[in-house]
Design goal:
The structure is a single chain. This protein is of the alpha/beta class. It has two domains: 146 residues, Aspartate Aminotransferase, domain 1 (Alpha-Beta Complex), CATH 3.90.1150; 224 residues, Type I PLP-dependent aspartate aminotransferase-like (Major domain) (Aspartate Aminotransferase, domain 2). It has 15 helices and twelve strands. The strands form three sheets. Strands 2-8-7-6-5-3-4 form a seven-stranded mixed beta sheet, with helices on both faces. A three-stranded antiparallel beta sheet has the order 9-12-11. The chain has a two-stranded parallel sheet with strand order 1-10. Helix 5 crosses helix 11. The longest helix has 22 residues. The radius of gyration is 21 Å and the shape is globular. The N and C termini lie far apart (49 Å).
């Protein structure tokens, strides 16, 4: 008798995590692997934040907190949102979870009924569709054109996708996997559409909002249109901007009644996030933000270097994005060709599999992000490794027939 539920069978394991795991296994077996597959900063957590975690342990801050996070941390988040976006929340409108992914899971599980629709622009983060499916909803994937709009959803596309069954619209800016970010005017155009459809809620995934380049200024839905605050969940956390992926702290800012609903769900799943991580996150949000400035400078230099290198390889084309730490080049020039070791490339998954096997560079295929013909690489790794990875990618691409 099969013990696995039908619900679980409808979703897939995270493909980014699977590829990263395979790369680690190959490396452990002695192979020379450069992994550009993980969405994780290579910087260490800043020292002041680590010390806050150590202090939490030493001072006995190791007990349960409120399910939705300690008051101290929620107050710190309120302050951070006000300083970053000039938007105002009360601590009762904030909830803290075990990472940003749990915030999204909580939001979907607490709201979706069977058949409710969720609009997701693609390319998109791999987990959105599966979380929606697990919650009983239906993902409405809206492909965004690379050449016409730099992978950004256009207002007419959003308008066309909304139906009477639409419950949510998810917007990730800067976006994983493309790195493209929506300007304030671009958000304004989307807000104008959303104002006309009062039944649609918005989930603003701002997890990469601080990692933007070339003087770009991040904004968020509620800051652009305060009238949408009553039906928007703004999600953020510490993993990317503060290099704290393993600390597992994400948060939601949302209407009080929906915060209560998500807290109810979390109370019957994980309960509160780690108390030690909460103390460290409070330090991250309230102390100097200089460490982010340092990371941004390094990421921008890496982005420029890798983007230039990829665009110089015949058959690859790559948009220079405004933020995050990803590039999403097209590999369509290699479809129906054969690699040096004899792999016939029918899909982007064939391309990244051959790249890993033949040159030891791990990337993630575009189909995992609901956009075929592309692949994602992360430049959140050392410049030396990126230089070597670009050499290997060039070598791989120059040996097709």
């Amino acid at each position: 008798m099969d013990i696995v539920s039908n619900r679980l069978k409808r979703i897939q394991p995270s493909q980014t995590l699977a590829i990263s795991a395979k790369a680690r296994e190959m490396k452990a077996n002695g192979q020379d692997i450069i992994s550009l597959s993980a969405g994780e900063p290579d910087f260490d957590t800043p020292e002041n934040i680590k010390q806050a975690g150590i202090k939490a342990i030493q001072s006995g801050q190791t007990k349960y907190t409120d399910v939705g996070g300690s008051l101290e941390l929620r107050q710190a988040i309120v302050k951070r949102l006000n300083e970053d976006y000039k938007i105002t929340y009360d601590p009762e409108e904030i909830m803290v979870s075990c990472g940003g992914k749990q915030v999204i899971f909580n939001a979907m599980m607490a709201s979706l009924n069977q058949g409710d629709e969720v609009i997701i622009p693609s390319p998109c983060w791999v987990s959105y569709p599966d979380i929606v499916t697990l919650a009983g909803g239906k993902s409405v994937i809206v492909p965004c054109n690379a050449k016409k709009s730099h992978f950004k959803l256009q207002p007419n596309q959003l308008e066309a996708a909304i139906t009477s069954k639409t419950k949510w619209f998810i917007l990730n800016s800067p976006c994983n996997p493309t790195g493209v970010a929506y300007s304030r005017s671009e958000l304004r155009a989307l807000c104008d559409v959303l104002l006309r459809h009062e039944h649609v809620w918005i989930l603003a995934d701002d997890i990469y909002s601080k990692l933007v380049y070339d003087g770009f200024t991040s904004s968020t839905i509620v800051a652009v249109e305060p009238l949408l605050k009553s039906r928007t969940v703004t999600m953020n956390g510490v993993s990317k901007a503060y290099a704290m992926t393993g600390w597992r702290i994400g948060y939601a800012a949302a209407p009080k009644h929906f915060i209560k609903a998500m807290t109810k769900l979390q109370g019957q799943s994980t309960t509160n996030p780690c108390s030690i991580s909460q103390m460290a996150a409070s330090e991250a949000f309230t102390a100097s933000q200089q460490s982010i400035v340092t990371m941004i400078k390094t990421y921008e230099e890496r982005r420029d270097f890798v983007c230039q290198q990829l665009n110089e390889i015949p058959g690859l084309t790559c948009i220079k994005p405004e933020g995050a730490f990803y590039l999403f080049p097209s590999m369509k020039g290699f479809l129906n060709k054969t690699s040096k070791n004899g792999t016939h490339i029918k899909t982007d998954q064939d391309f990244v599999a051959a790249l890993l096997e033949e040159e030891g560079v791990a990337a993630v295929h575009g189909a995992a992000f609901m956009m075929e013909g592309y692949f994602r690489i992360s430049y959140a790794t050392s410049t030396l490794l990126l230089e070597e990875a670009c050499k290997r990618i060039r070598q791989f691409c120059m040996n097709f027939s």
